[in-house]
Design brief:
Strand order of the largest sheet: 2-1-3-4-5-6
Bound molecules: 5'-deoxyadenosine, iron/sulfur cluster
Number of strands: 19
CATH class of the largest domain: Alpha Beta
Oligomer: single chain
Distance between the termini: 47 Å
Strand content: 15-25%
Structural class: alpha/beta
Shape: globular
Length: about 475
């Protein structure tokens, strides 16, 4: 048999990209590629890029500079290294990448990963291949099922894409242009994926999509199903003990999603609900299509269905024209809601988006100061949220052995890492994949430290986790 070829994928950015990296690995496994942790050893290196962060494309070009050196070294040993750029920078920059970085063999947009084998062969023949179109065929259908080996490598927790793209067109955001219009996968395909993951030991599934709660995939009954309805169905799959979803838009929160939080023990009480700003004028300029009060009301609906739900969010400071008073409205909203955590970003223009044409840029020093104040407030809230766990007994899904001997690591319902030494009676490995109560004693930075609150080794949980 031929030596397997080695593949290294370096992913930047969001969960969607982490998931996409797995899908590319699945496509390429069919071509005899196995993954390697070192770019230097690889026969194919893929940079899976993200366009959302500041200076994303510059980072890609400097990484390509480093890879050119690695490729030259490989060539000295008589090895040929192919280099591909995937993800949203590939989509946005296309030919510009090939022009600026001749070292690149393949440029592939997120809609075309299933064509990777053909593109690599084409690059082999002609020196270069580029595909950043939005094809008309259903790419979800053409992607292969992950191999057993790849599923196992994913461990206890896995992502499943249920929708892609976004129709919201927030004025600062590239997603509607790089990922295209919102498309939902059929319910049956998602059920098949989740059942297969569960059969291979996955216990927690996070449904992902750029605007996941806009989900409206075809159901087996011929009707479009909402995310809430999909969650109810997935909760019945044996072996799946935790369900999550990300990222949501406040306007697409419907009653079925709220009811799912009320009714499903498997649906975790942590909701990522970006608001971006607390100022109505800025929200309008961002084309968010909701006010700060609309957002507060959505939070209230979740909380009345299930009081233990905690929220995380995304914020942008220094959107063009943002005044001190408008920034203060964001701080006021954060103070009022009380978050378990949040991401905050300085506004940076993305070429091609409407906000990039806006003139009144907020000075960098003002943005820096606002970001620091907002992050301080959010850190304070996050620390308080974590401290609140001390002295409580919380459920932890154990995922892997810890770095210290005899230690095991898992996560709480709120995704807080939890570290436990189960003691001699139980090997850490026997606990992986189980949800067990942990009495939390203390905090170490963001992690909870505690002890198992059970007397003897637990049997595996009931399959539905109910
Ligand atoms: N500038 C700053 N932050 C941005 N985000 C998206 N586009 C921009 C931009 N142009 C942030 C938003 C979004 C998160 C994923 O990234 O807060 O929710
Ligand atoms: Fe971008 Fe999210 Fe707005 Fe869609 S809803 S345009 S993905 S920020």
């Amino acid at each position: 048999m031929a030596e397997p070829r080695k593949l290294h994928i370096k992913s930047y950015g969001c969960q969607m990209n982490v998931y996409d990296a797995q899908r590319m690995a699945d496509v390429l496994a069919g071509e005899g590629f196995v993954e390697t942790a070192q770019a230097e050893d690889a026969d194919l290196v893929i940079l899976n890029t993200c366009h959302i962060r500041e200076k994303a494309s510059e980072k890609v070009y400097s990484e390509l500079g480093r890879l050119r050196m690695a490729r030259d070294e490989a060539a000295k040993d008589g090895r040929r290294m192919q280099i591909a750029v995937a993800g949203c920078v590939a989509q946005a920059e296309g030919e510009e990448i090939v022009r600026r970085a001749p070292v690149v063999d393949v440029v592939v947009g997120p809609q075309s990963y299933h064509h990777l084998p053909r593109l690599l062969a084409e690059a082999e023949r002609t020196g270069r291949a580029l595909e950043t179109e939005f094809p008309v065929e259903d790419k979800f259908l053409s992607l292969p099922q992950p191999s057993e080996r790849n599923i196992r490598a994913r461990g206890i927790s896995a992502f499943v894409t249920v929708q892609e793209g976004c129709d919201k067109f927030c004025t600062f955001c590239v997603v509607p242009y790089t990922r295209g219009a919102e498309v939902s996968r059929p319910v049956s395909a998602i059920i098949t994926d989740v059942e297969r993951l569960a059969d291979h030991g996955v216990r927690e599934v996070t449904l992902i999509g750029q605007n996941v709660n806009a989900y409206h995939g075809d159901g087996p009954d011929g009707c479009a199903w909402t995310l809430g309805r999909l969650l109810v169905r997935l909760a019945q799959i044996p072996g799946i003990v935790r369900l999550r979803y990300s990222t949501s838009h406040p306007n697409d929160v419907d009653d079925t999603l709220i009811a799912a939080h009320r009714d499903l023990a498997t649906l975790m009480p942590l909701v990522h609900l970006p608001v971006q700003s607390g100022s109505n004028r800025i929200l309008a300029a961002m084309n968010r299509k909701h006010s700060a009060d609309d957002y507060r009301r959505v939070i209230d609906r979740f909380r009345s269905a299930s009081p233990e739900i905690a929220f995380t969010s995304d914020f942008i400071v220094g959107f063009p024209g943002e005044t001190d008073a408008e920034f203060a409205a964001t701080l006021a909203l954060v103070t009022q809601i009380g978050y378990a955590g949040a991401y905050s970003f300085k506004y940076s223009p993305r070429p091609g988006t409407p906000a990039a044409e806006m003139q009144e840029m907020v000075p960098t020093a003002v943005m820096d100061e606002r970001l620091e104040r907002l992050q301080h407030l959010i850190d304070t809230q996050q620390a308080a949220f974590n401290r609140d766990a001390i002295g409580r007994t919380v459920d932890v899904l154990f995922e892997r052995a810890g770095r210290k001997p005899g230690q095991i690591v898992g996560r709480t319902a709120y995704l807080q890492p939890a570290h436990v030494f189960p003691g001699d009676a139980m090997t850490p490995e026997s606990l992986i994949g189980q949800v067990l109560p942990v009495r939390v004693d203390s905090l170490e930075r963001y992690s909870l430290l505690g002890e198992l609150a059970i007397a003897s080794p637990a049997r595996p949980l009931a399959a539905t986790g109910a």
